[in-house]
Design brief:
single chain, 343 residues, alpha+beta, Alpha-Beta Plaits, 12 strands, 15% strand, globular, metal ion binding, metal-binding, 4Fe-4S, 4 iron, 4 sulfur cluster binding, repeat
């Protein structure tokens, strides 16, 4: 192969110039909450642990019962209780309990207990959506709900690794598995309803509404004084139904207001959220950083790719004549293909 040194140097210099000309990938701006975004406010001080929300969720979403609970194993029975220990491929909404010391008083950090409801947080700038390579997870531009398309999913489970709340679950026991997560009963909302967990909750612990209005309601509750009686809306913030309850006291924070760029599932409790198993996260979504790294890698790969392409083209061009012209014989005449005689 004959490659002219001057042409080779030209290609190398051009590739190096391309590599050095690439700018630094900048972080994209954070995504903002859609103007008509809806969400859920969970108030652990109002939760009585009845798990009506779990039942409502399964009925509304045709979810199967989970008979793998420790309760059934402890009693040596099967098919009796639907009592999973955590979120799984059969459970999108789970009430869990926290207890400390003697656990005598509800919503107290010392010698107390509290409930916590786990479900998809519907992040404003969701890491799972950013991580999904096929857009099986998308964020509705109007409601902000993080929705899942099983037909687009390839089962890579990147969303499970990306989610800081450990929410998406995978159907490992299925031949054709899919990801399972709360979608805030989007099918019910499309018909004018509200999420089943909010509809089923008898105390108003799970409250549906527009996210800005839910934040306003949450901060209203933070002004309540422990021991006084206050009116709490139930089911839906604009539904008109209320109940009066004694204020048990709040930990001064609305979880989800700023975490990972904000979430549409907001939480209030009487104990610190780290006691309830909620991660301590910053105010910036990790999706911004991950996408910046990805774009930087892709941008960095362009220069080597162009350089390699230039070298291949140079090799092709300089060997073109060798491929077109037959090689010369030692006596200076072009060699001819010999005819194979018949037997």
């Amino acid at each position: 192969m004959k490659i002219d040194r001057r042409d080779f140097c030209k290609v190398v210099v051009a590739g190096a110039a391309t590599a050095l000309s690439g700018g630094v990938a900048e972080a994209r701006p954070p995504k903002e909450l859609p103007p008509k975004a809806v969400g859920i406010l969970y108030d652990a001080t109002l939760c009585i642990g009845c798990k009506a929300c779990e039942v409502g969720c399964k009925e509304a979403n045709d979810m199967p019962m989970d008979h793998t609970s420790c309760a059934e194993q402890a009693h040596g029975v099967t098919g009796v209780w639907d009592a999973p220990d955590d979120l799984n491929s059969r459970t999108m909404n789970k009430i869990k309990a926290y207890a400390q010391g003697t656990a005598e008083v509800k919503d107290r950090p010392q010698d107390g207990y509290s409930f916590i409801k786990r479900a998809c947080m519907h992040c404003v700038d969701p890491d799972c959506v950013s991580a999904c390579p096929v857009s099986a997870l998308t964020k509705d531009p109007v409601t902000g709900i993080v929705q899942y398309d099983p037909d687009a999913c390839i089962g890579c489970r990147y969303c499970q690794l990306a989610c800081p709340f450990n929410i998406p679950k995978f159907e490992y026991d299925k031949t054709f598995p899919k990801i399972v997560k709360c979608q805030m009963c989007a099918h019910l909302q499309a018909e004018g309803g509200i999420p089943a967990c909010c509809e089923a909750c008898p105390t108003g612990a799970s409250l549906f509404g527009a996210v800005p209005d839910l934040l306003e309601e949450a901060h209203r509750r933070l002004t309540f004084k422990s021991g006084e009686r206050q009116s709490y809306p139930i089911h839906s913030l604009d539904g008109g139904e209320t109940r009066t309850a004694e204020v048990r006291g709040y930990y001064p924070k609305v979880y989800g207001e700023t975490e990972t760029g904000g979430t549409q599932y907001l939480m209030m409790a009487g104990v610190p959220f780290e006691h309830l198993g909620m991660p301590d996260l910053g105010s910036e979504s990790r999706a911004r950083l991950s996408e910046t790294i990805q774009h930087g890698l892709y941008q960095g790969m362009m220069a080597p790719t162009l350089l390699l392409g230039g070298l291949v083209y140079a090799a092709y061009r300089n060997t073109h004549e060798d491929r077109m012209d037959p090689p010369e014989a030692p006596d200076g005449k072009a060699s001819q293909a010999e005819e194979v005689p018949d037997d």
